[in-house]
Amino acid sequence: MEGYSLRGGIRVVPRIGGGFRADSGWPMARLRADPNFITLREIWAGTLMITADNLVAIRRWRSTGLEFEVSDCDELWIFRTRSVDRLIDRLAALGWTVER
């Protein structure tokens, strides 16, 4: 199966505490996924590489996005999109599980 790519917004927040390190709207961020990696990239926040080995959870975030938690990062990355259900379906087709 081929990979999947989608533009959206991103919000990067610390796991503990409040506030955020980066917050941008569409189309400033990009999510790229294939069966082995998910990459989140945003110009100010940088890049987050997700693999099966470092993934803690992918969770639905409100009705507009997905929250990505990985073991080797002290921040939660939230990818926002208008088509979150479609994104969940595409990730599932690539073998990634999203907590609903």
Written account of the structure:
The protein is mostly beta strands and 100 residues long. Helices cover 10% and strands 52% of the residues. It has one helix and seven strands. Strands 4-3-2-1-7-6-5 form a seven-stranded antiparallel β-sheet, with helices on one face. Strand 6 and strand 7 (75-80) form a beta hairpin. The longest helix is centred in the C-terminal third of the chain and has 10 residues, at 84-93. The radius of gyration is 12 Å and the shape is globular. The mean pLDDT is 93.
Compressed to H and E, one letter per element, the order equals EEEEEEEH
Radius of gyration in whole Å, from Cα? 12 Å
The gross shape turns out to be: globular
Mean pLDDT across residues? 93
Number of helices: 1
| Number of E-state strands | 7
Which class do the helix and strand fractions yield? mainly beta
Strand content: over 45%
Largest sheet: 7 strands, antiparallel
What helical percentage do the residues reach?
10-25%
Low-confidence stretches are: none
| Terminus-to-terminus distance | 24 Å
Strand order of the largest sheet: 4-3-2-1-7-6-5
Concise structural overview:
The chain contains one helix and seven strands, in the order E-E-E-E-E-E-E-H.
Protein traits:
100 residues; 1 helix; seven-stranded antiparallel β-sheet; 7 strands; single chain; mainly beta
Question: What are the SSEs and their pairings?
Answer:
Blueprint: E1 4-14, E2 22-33, E3 38-42, E4 46-50, E5 55-61, E6 65-70, E7 75-80, H1 84-93
Antiparallel strand pairs: 1-2, 1-7, 2-3, 3-4, 5-6, 6-7
